[in-house]
Amino acid sequence: MLTRKIEFLVGCFLLTGLAAFLTLVFNVANIKIDSGESTYALTARFTNVGGLKVRSPVKVGGVTVGRVSDIILDPKQLDAVVTIQIDKRYDQFPETSSLSILTSGLLGEQFLGLTPGFDDGDTSMLKSGDKIENTHSALVLEDLIGQFLYSLGSKDK
Amino acid sequence: MRIVERITALGHNAIEFISGFGRAGIMLWNAIVNVPRFRKGTPLLIKQLYVVGVQSFVIITISGLFIGMVLALQGYNILSDFGTSESLGPMVALSLLRELGPVVTALLFAGRAGSALTAEIGLMKSTEQLSSLEMMAVDPLRQVIAPRFWAGVISMPLLAMIFSAVGIYGGHIVGVEWKGIDAGSFWSILQSQVEWHQDILNSLIKSVVFAVVVTWIALYRGYQVIPNPEGISRATTKTVVQASLAVLALDFLLTALMFG
Amino acid sequence: MDNQTPNLVEVRNMSFNRGSRAIFKDLNLTIPKGKVTAIMGPSGIGKTTLLKLISGQLTPDSGQVLFDGHDIHKVSRKELFNLRQRMSMLFQSGALFTDINVADNVAFALREHSNLPESIINTIVAMKLEAVGLRGAGKLMPNELSGGMQRRAALARAIALEPELVMYDEPFAGQDPIAMGVLVKLIKELSESLNLTSVVVSHDVVEVLSIADYVYVVADKKVIAEGTPQQLKQSDNLQLQQFMGGEPDGPVPFHFPAPDYKKELMGENR
Fold first, then answer.
1. What is the CATH number of the domain that holds C16?
2. Across the A/B interface, how many CB contacts are shorter than 8 Å?
3. Between vectors from CA C25 to CA C22 and to CA C29, what angle results, nearest 5°?
4. Do A10 and A75 fall within a single domain?
5. Does any domain span residue A151?
6. Which residues of chain C neighbour A6 with C-beta distances below 8 Å?
7. Could you list the residue ranges that cross the membrane (chain B) (predicted)?
8. Which of A29, A94, C124, C206 is the most exposed place for a label (fewest CB within 10 A)?
9. Is residue C90 one of the residues assigned to a domain?
10. Does the interface ipTM go beyond 0.95?
11. How far apart are the C-alpha atoms of C265 and C269, rounded to whole Å?
12. A17 is in which domain, residue-wise?
């Protein structure tokens, strides 16, 4: 027959398992910016996305405000179209804001830096489905070195 | 003639293999399709949760702690060479959530609970307890197999979650307390890298799949046992071997599906 | 009187094979209501198998088994379970559930199949245990009992639901003379007081003949002799006499079928 002790221990076990799950969800995965309801989508075009990936963070002043949700190649213009999901709490970015692909540290992951534009009073704010026109593509190390060597060479002459 | 015999043997083995699958499927189907009886079924389930879950709790917690600590120690030595020792947090957390949590839990579970299930059911069969249930007009699948199956399927994901959580804490002990990584950056980088859907939900899905497979194999091996001591010991060994291999193979498949 | 008793179980032309080995061939048996019917035979001829066939745990290859007019292998699983509530079986090993105590073992079928309140179940359990002389052992676990007591506890469990048919699988095997005597007495008393139909499968000739109303002797895949104990004792069937008298060799050979001994020793068969 079941004793109360067994029932108690099973209850403890189930609670511990649930607690572990909740700890993982809320403490380990910072579950704030993800659920579809609380974000809005923006798109931007880049000539080169470098090492940007789906789920790379979008940061403003180092604070993560959203994530990349999709990267596709426009078959006509042959440049990359990046869709990002921004947390609804941050909905005060002027249309003149710009996006650049940055790298965290020398070897780190690439992320999108959103630089808020100047708001002169009647600039409208970015809303769901809008496109950010002002973008800066990824810096590709090989191109940089190539340009550097080229400029060195031209100076020598 | 030789070749004909070989081909015959191959066909025989293939048919055995497939019909074994079929029998196992029918057993599981009959066991879980029956309408659950809450008044009589719940005490049985609680008892099995105790046997399968609570009794595996200690081994899972201790293993999780040590594996988290070892991961952190090895990871720290490599990452500090590249000057990115702050990435220790996500490294430990992602390894645990994506792979080690579900897989090691399933392997330990197969060894600890799976073998015990097989032996227990095998013993019940060889002492005619299953037949006597049958004679008392009680379906042994419903009375014996179903509660054990559900207990396994409920317990293992919880155990995997406990394993991962304890392991991350073990990583914290080694990384922060011992090696002196800043606690703030350890947790913030960890939190920015781990994601609910990609990592935690997938971890949960993996462990549910493993739970079904391991418990199923253990129960089927017990139910099909040749009722003598040798048969039981063989069935127990088979449970551990087949369940472990199935877990590792399925893990590769699931990882390929989830993380490409 | 005997002819008016309807038969509770009828086995008609039943054949059963295990793999390619035939166990029974065109077997016919009738088990009359309210009597003790014994099935005897040397070990290894499938007496336990026969009980499993009668109770529907195994399915014959041909022929049928009728329990109170229902073909037990044709009815649906639900009906089979309903019929099974009217029969019970005492297994050779007792087959008590090892994880619950003796009283819970006896109460098991009652709790499963009736909605009786716990107080009534406890009363019934006490009565059944009293009948087998184990009322004091209700709180013990099965492995704390001796083999003979386990079998008695299993008997209490078998009669808990007041079945019409009780099948005893080798009830006397491996028991000391005292336990054997107790079991013989119990089977006899129970079948008389509860008006049970009993089937006893055994090879313990003396004990069986002392309680059986009618005896079938099964050997060589079929019934070789049948009758009341009196008739069997007077029979001049050689095979039967060998079995009843316990002679080592006779129509039932001591040797397993083998090629000629001399030839094998001389290596001629290789």
1. 3.40.50.300
2. 86
3. 135
4. no
5. no
6. none
7. 49-73, 145-169, 200-219, 240-259
8. C206
9. yes
10. no
11. 9
12. 1-32
